[in-house]
Amino acid sequence: MTEIAAPPHPFDAAVTLRAAEDGRTRGRTTPDYTNMVGPFGGVTAAALLRAVQQHPDRLGDPISLTVNYAGPVADGDFDITARAVRTNRTNQHWQLELTQDGVVATTATAVFGTRRDTWSDTELDVPEVPSAETVPARTLPEFIAWARNYEMRFVEGAVPEQDAGEHPDSTTTLWVRDTPARPLDFPALTALSDVFYPRVFLRRGRYMPAGTVSLTVYFHADAAQLDTQGDDFVLGTARTHRFSQGYFDQAAQLWGRDGTLLATSHQLVYFKD
Amino acid sequence: MTEIAAPPHPFDAAVTLRAAEDGRTRGRTTPDYTNMVGPFGGVTAAALLRAVQQHPDRLGDPISLTVNYAGPVADGDFDITARAVRTNRTNQHWQLELTQDGVVATTATAVFGTRRDTWSDTELDVPEVPSAETVPARTLPEFIAWARNYEMRFVEGAVPEQDAGEHPDSTTTLWVRDTPARPLDFPALTALSDVFYPRVFLRRGRYMPAGTVSLTVYFHADAAQLDTQGDDFVLGTARTHRFSQGYFDQAAQLWGRDGTLLATSHQLVYFKD
């Protein structure tokens, strides 16, 4: 009798890294997470985080991650080099590069560390929203392949219909989770922080060339707090502060259904109108 | 007759870099910008930005900067290496390291680029505050040397007195400028983005060990918009979203007096209570 192992979740397949020469690790883009140009930036960020997580020298869990999208990632293999530039008693600083055929496509820095009990407080209020079950699921347009891996229930700021016209603000709030369902972990949370389509589409009511230049994620929860979320929905909200001269920022929060602020995230996005 | 040149502004002295061996540049900490441990993080960030600005390969102006404070910077000389990892048509990605005696103290990444006219909008509202002239100037405690280089007029959330007791929120809003006055430019704006003392001091009403782990600045204004500010006050506001397990985030905005959103900034801070 031949036993057939279940295939991995598409997200795990997309962030699988295997050892390569010179201490590098090698991954491969998957069609499941294709964006308009190259792979979904969130999954690239998750693969970079994963490279640190599985590095033998790694200390603790993710504290912060910054990813700079320097150029397009082509379909196929990519190499990641992860270097611990400094290890302190409770934290560790990493520099990363993602290359294809020796050309840098993405750079990143990460801080990992151990956490300990201290005075704590979440000062920000959870957005007041209806429960996930009462909000209809909605898909992104078919040509955005990666979005098919997320169940999205938009509370406000859904993707505009073609020629929807201008929208007064840039806020999108949604319940979101992987589909098929998958327990939340740091790479999945990293990818979720980039799940918001470019805010300029919402404001202008139409699509246009736009791409993340730099993405930063601050992890506010530890592994145990992520475990608690299981494969439940996460509440995400994102908005822009200023659009100017071909760039805008996008600030996001990701909340657990239990009211835990799991991560805050920021990105700077290029656009061409 | 001997002509004596005016000494440079203390800020310019603190971010002066001279060419060193192997394409590196060398700077030197100045007592003017000393913090509790090592130099003020804002001036270190400004020196890193400056290293890119004066690099012969530099394209355009700053778009984003992320600085990771990996370890303390000792008083004395430091070396900066700046490497353009990828140059595109309209933007350029940099990796930087600040070392002392070959040990990495700080790493950074920066995106520089050219800007062009597009649809623009500032979606965030300017905080409603009294004019700078009607708010009294206040100094930080004498042992925080760097703060003496800033004129600070706190609208809310001034530095707590010793044993002030808990404060209900973490927001500080202030009018701030270099003293002596100095025209605003990208390095000065970078330093200003770190001018907010750690939010945990305000919430807890007391000092404790705290230090920035990672700082990101998004530049929303171009050089002409900075020039327009002259040496006038900038309105800064900062707050925290979550304090948890020895870390908290700090989100800041810097506005020109004319209502221009000049920069938004984020940092993750370590604290020990």
UniProtKB/TrEMBL annotation, chains A, B:
Among InterPro entries, the record links this protein to: ACOT8-like_C, Acyl-CoA_hotdog, HotDog_dom_sf, Sec_Metab_Biosynth-Assoc, TesB_ACOT8-like_N
Q: Which Gene3D superfamilies match?
A: Acyl-CoA thioesterase, double hotdog domain
Q: Where is the Acyl-CoA thioesterase-like N-terminal HotDog domain?
A: 31-113
The record places domain Acyl-CoA thioesterase-like C-terminal at: 135-270
Fetch the Pfam families from UniProt. Answer: 4HBT_3 (PF13622), 4HBT_3C (PF20789)
By what name is this protein known?
Acyl-CoA thioesterase
Native species: Rhodococcus ruber BKS 20-38
